[in-house]
Amino acid sequence: MRPKLVLFGDSITEESFGDGGWGAALAHHFSRSADVVLRGYSGYNTRWALRMVEKAMDGVCVEGKPPMAVTVFFGANDASLADRSSGFQHVPLPEYLNNLRAICSFLKERWPSTVVILITPPPIDEEGRLRYPFGDNPSGLPERTNESAGAYAKACIAVAKESGIPVIDIWSKMQQFPNWEKIFLRDGLHFTAGGNRVLFEEVVERLRNAGLSLETLPADLPLLYDIDPNDPLKSFSN
């Protein structure tokens, strides 16, 4: 049975199997070694994610075999400003910290051997959010700011450190590149193909650091070059 990599998060996770998506890239990368399972919920914050994490993980563990890894990617919606158009998604920073801790604890208590990887909320291009607002925006102000996203990113990193689990600081990583606002974000929040590529590479690196890579994971059934051309069926006798 192939091991499973579960992607748990908000809309950036839900749409990750689209063209050029980071989830699709992971499925391709591990095409003969692991199954990538999508658990993305557009618009969700950590308050809602904590409420339904148990239900979301139903069916992930088959025949008692836990997933090899779970990515947890929430915070972009929590960081929405409380007094603007997406205020109903806002979660105060202290609660965000506690919710992340609880989600990670749930996963580790349920599956102690599973690698849990936290991903910070991404940076925000406020100009892009004004051009692509969510719903009506009578204030004329972006419903998210990069400053707020950065505060939640730092909180996510703090939870990872105190919990001893890997973290991807995508907020800082993307901002290392010139013109990141347009290269990596298509609407000030969601990823372009370039943004998806950055996150894909970061996830592969964290998995490799945890001992999960194409070199360490066995292929599902014999590879073509391992099949004896003079007696092909011999490779399937075990």
TrEMBL record:
Source organism, top-level taxon: Eukaryota
Q: Which Gene3D superfamilies match?
A: SGNH hydrolase
* Molecular function GO labels: hydrolase activity, acting on ester bonds
Q: Which UniProt keywords apply?
A: Hydrolase
Against InterPro entries, the record matches this protein to: GDSL (IPR001087), Iah1-like (IPR045136), SGNH_hydro_sf (IPR036514)
Magnesium among keywords: no
CDD domains xref list: Isoamyl_acetate_hydrolase_like (cd01838)
Instruction: Give any Pfam family that matches.
Output: Lipase_GDSL
Protein family (similarity comment):
Belongs to the 'GDSL' lipolytic enzyme family.
* PANTHER family, A to Z: ISOAMYL ACETATE-HYDROLYZING ESTERASE 1, ISOAMYL ACETATE-HYDROLYZING ESTERASE 1 HOMOLOG
Protein's recorded name: GDSL esterase/lipase At5g45920
- Species source reads Elaeis guineensis var. tenera (Oil palm)
